[in-house]
Each structure stands twice: as C-alpha cells, then as structure tokens.
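Q: what sequence does this backbone want?
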C-alpha cells in the first residue's frame, strides 16, 4: 500500500455519543493548528479520521465498510486514521486487516494525532491506545470558535462496570478535569460564540474538583461558577448516573436559573432483578425517588432516560415492569436500545439470551410508549411562553430552529439570528418538535 503525502485537507467523521462529537471537534482543532484545513462538504480530503463508537453491535464491521467506501476510483485511499472507542478496543486488529489505515488512536491519546499523521506521511504506521487522560487535555489547543451550543467534557471514563457496557474498557477509569481548566475552556467557548454549554461526562455527576478558592465542589459548584459568566445563557449536563446524584446538584436546579430544567437520567430497565444482573446498583424505587426530589426542586423539569430491552434472561413480565416505569415517569424524551452483546463484557456470556424477534417486539412496544409520552409532553407545552436559543435556519425562508429550555426543537418565523435567545409562544405540538410564534 502506497504512502500518502503529508495531508493538506482533512475530514473528521464522528459516530456515537456527544463526547465523541466533542473529541472530533478537538481533533479538528488540533489538525487546524498544524495548518491543515477542513475539506469542504462533498470534497475529497487528504486525511479522513473515523472517530468510532463501540457501544452496540456491528461497530467494527461498520468501520471496515467505511474504510472500503473511502477507496477512490484509482484504487488509492486518503490517509485514514481510526480514532474513538473501536480504535481502543480493536486497534491492533484493524491495523492488521486494513492496510489503508495508517493511524489508530484511542480516545485518551488523540492529542498525539498530528505527529502520528506526520509519521504516516513518512511511511510509518502507528497505534496509540494509552490511557492517561489528563495528558490529553493539557496538550490540546485553546478553543477559539463555537456555535451557539457547545460541548465541554468535564469528566471522562467509568468505574461502574454495568455488565453489558464497553465504556469502562474503552474510556478507562473515571477522571475529573480540574475546575480552573474547565472555567478557562468555558470562557474561551463563550468568547467564541457559545451561549449554551453542555457539560459532558460518561458519569458527569461524578465530577468533583476544587474551586478557585480551594474548596471541594461537585458539579453544582462548577455549574454555579459558569452561571456567573454574563454571556453564557444556559447550562446543561449529561449523562448522569443515579448513584452519583447529590443533594447539592438537585438543589442547584431550584436555584440556578441558567441550569436548564432538563435531566437525562438513564434507568435502563424496570425490574430490580434485571438491574441487579446489570450491576446498576440502584433499584427502581430509589430511581423514582430521585426523580421525585428533582421535581420538588424544579417542578417543570423535563425527564429523559436510556433503556435496554432484552438483557439476558429478561422475561415478558420483567419487560412489562419497564413499561410501568415509563408510565410512572412520563419522559419528555428517551433513548431505547436492543441489548447488544459486547465482547469481553460479563453479560455477553450470561445464559438465556433473548431471541432477536422478541427484542424487536419489545423495543417496538417500548418506543410506542415513549413516543406517546414525548408527544404528550410537547402537547402540554402548548400555550407556554419560553425562551428559545436559535441554533440554525429552518427549511423554509425566514424560518428558524432552536431549543426550548426543555430541549424541545422549536421552529418559528420572524426576526432572529443564530445565537439569539428569543421569547416564543409555543402554539402547536408535533411528536418531535413544536411550532412557535415570536412574542
Ligand atoms: N454513561 C452513560 C451512557 C452510556 S452509553 C450511562 O451510564 O447512562 C449510552 C447508552 O447506551 C446506555 O445508557 C445504555 O442504555 C446503552 N447501552 C450501553 N451498552 C449497551 C449494550 N451492550 N446494548 C444495548 N445498549 C447499550
Ligand atoms: Fe456504561 Fe454503566 Fe458506565 Fe454508563 S455507568 S458508561 S452504562 S458502565
Ligand atoms: Fe460510543 Fe465510546 Fe461514546 S463506545 S457511546 S463513543 S464512549
């Protein structure tokens, strides 16, 4: 396989979670700092970074087919770098199987991407899957530009070891980035145009640090510090784990106006037996009680969650308990997945795997219930006047698209611009969005 020349243009393709989106942005900034430019939409790029996700099935197959699709008509390929969680989990094998891949770099080592790309241009393929996350953040360039909504990784890794999940293996142990670094990165994002910042972590509410006066703080302390930034309008955070929730964070929802009334708190399943087999270390009751405390602190809070159907051994009756949780909570939105055995995780070798047809059927029923509740939540918002943060132009001339405080998509016509916070009356609700009228 021929050596690629030093790339002048690049493209980063991110799959998976919001943290991968954040990592993809940081990799693009790193390459930009080396003088490379992002290839325009539709143009061929000299370097393609596949920033992969390993959370569910067919992740690896998908990477190979993406690599195949990058082959040009003349048989050459761009310089391909595989990054992200598949790189961490299957890097060696990808290197062995795909000669057009010149760089394999895991989620904790992508600060080394530019030098690895330079090595590749001089004929040396390399793999880097070390785990020291702190080194990475210190080596990244300062943030300069941002859209109205920005992601900021504050915590990374996971020590929970849910029995179905690869994240503890691909992202490593839980680490919290230092408070001062985060406030600084946030300031840069705000100066670059961000009006809303979403704090990211695999267990974001496990974040801890010391504030600028050396006092120990949790995520609520970071949120309060960011709320003091005058040009920042909104703060969100995701994803939380029920066991890391603190009174202080719940209380902040009632006190910090800029903390949006939205909580993504996955429950995964509605049966205590399944939750135990999943090693979730919370029960259905403790989860519901937690939500109740959020509702007391912030009565209009919109709730979101993640669900897995068909975990090994899940019976019909146990699945129905999941539906009961859905009915009890009334989620404003949620994500639901069929269980996918991940190589190397304890659940993959458990007995009684649920047949695919049964999983399909359960997922359909669950999604019908979740869609019903999402639409009901949207309908119940009609008549409210709220702020909408404008994120982009709509499909029609003069139309704008943005988000309500409850993370609903809202479209409206009138005088606005990207990044504006406008007051909108919600006038009509669809299953996935609302239409509004400027007030
Ligand atoms: N740290 C977060 C997010 C983890 S990944 C959390 O704990 O919630 C996002 C979601 O993917 C999980 O919440 C879970 O619902 C789903 N997921 C993870 N592993 C899975 C698997 N093996 N099969 C199906 N869904 C899975
Ligand atoms: Fe995966 Fe569980 Fe960690 Fe979430 S808490 S990342 S589901 S192991
Ligand atoms: Fe996927 Fe890794 Fe995120 S497996 S969901 S990209 S942490």
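A:
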């Amino acid at each position: 396989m021929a050596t690629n020349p030093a790339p002048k243009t690049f493209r980063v393709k991110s799959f998976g979670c919001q943290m991968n989106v954040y990592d993809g942005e940081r990799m693009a900034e790193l390459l930009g700092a080396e003088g490379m430019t992002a290839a325009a939409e539709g143009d061929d790029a000299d370097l393609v970074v596949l920033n992969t996700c390993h959370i569910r099935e067919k992740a690896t197959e998908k990477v190979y087919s993406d690599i195949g699709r990058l082959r040009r008509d003349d048989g050459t390929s761009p310089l391909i770098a595989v990054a992200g969680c598949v790189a961490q989990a299957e890097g060696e094998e990808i290197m062995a199987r795909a000669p057009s891949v010149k760089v394999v770099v895991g989620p904790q080592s992508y600060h080394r991407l530019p030098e690895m790309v330079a090595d590749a241009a001089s004929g040396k393929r390399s793999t880097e899957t070390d785990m020291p996350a702190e080194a990475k953040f210190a080596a990244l360039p300062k943030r300069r530009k941002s859209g109205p909504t920005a992601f900021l990784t504050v915590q990374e890794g996971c020590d929970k070891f849910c029995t179905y999940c690869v994240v503890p293996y691909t992202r490593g142990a839980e680490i919290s980035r230092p408070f001062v670094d985060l406030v600084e990165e946030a300031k840069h994002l705000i100066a670059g145009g961000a009006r809303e910042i979403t704090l990211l972590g695999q267990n974001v509410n496990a974040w801890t640090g010391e504030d600028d006066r050396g006092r120990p703080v949790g995520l609520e302390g970071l949120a309060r510090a960011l709320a003091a930034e005058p040009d920042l309008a909104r703060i969100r955070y995701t994803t939380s784990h029920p066991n890391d929730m603190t009174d202080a964070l719940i209380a902040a929802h009632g006190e910090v106006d800029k903390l949006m009334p939205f909580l993504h708190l996955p429950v995964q399943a509605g049966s205590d037996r399944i939750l135990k087999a999943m090693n979730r270390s919370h029960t259905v009751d403790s989860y519901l009680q937690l939500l109740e405390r959020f509702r007391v602190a912030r009565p209009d809070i919109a709730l979101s969650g993640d669900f897995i159907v068909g975990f090994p051994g899940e019976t019909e009756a146990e699945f129905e308990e999941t539906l009961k949780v859905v009915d009890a909570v009334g989620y404003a939105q949620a994500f639901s997945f069929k269980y996918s055995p991940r190589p190397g995780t304890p659940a993959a070798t458990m007995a009684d795997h649920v047949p695919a047809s049964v999983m399909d059927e359960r997922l359909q029923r669950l999604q019908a219930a979740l869609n019903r509740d999402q639409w009901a939540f949207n309908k119940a918002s009609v008549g409210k006047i709220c702020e909408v943060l404008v994120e982009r132009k709509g499909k029609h001339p003069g139309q704008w698209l943005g988000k309500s405080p409850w993370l609903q998509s809202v479209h409206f016509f009138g005088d606005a611009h990207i990044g504006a916070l406008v007051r909108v009356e919600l006038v009509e609700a669809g299953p996935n969005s609302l239409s509004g009228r400027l007030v």
